[in-house]
Fold Nuclear transport factor 2 family protein.
Amino acid sequence: MLEQLIEAYVDAYNRKDMPGMLAVLHDDIRFENVSNTGGTMALTGKQAFGEQAAQVVPLFSVRRQEIVTQIITDNRAAIEIYYSAVVAQDMPNGWKANQQIELRGVSIFECKDGKISRISDYS
């Protein structure tokens, strides 16, 4: 079940489908993003997740997560992700409009009550 939730989340992410992303998330989702270049950002709750995601969507004209490898148990998963994107506008971190970005990272997912209850992204 968790594998299907993750696939639905990644598919919606790649299409910039906010309702699709939110549909598979638990109301008490815990999200954190840990970057070796940008620090850590953490939030709790579907509403906070949706607000953050809505701010990020327009920053990239194209974005894609590709699952490279995955280890999944009943309610936990570790996923190696290949991420590529095209920056839509100049950003404070130095990325420029039309710049292509490629990253590798790991995402940890947890499931509760049939929904994704935790996403921790490390890049």
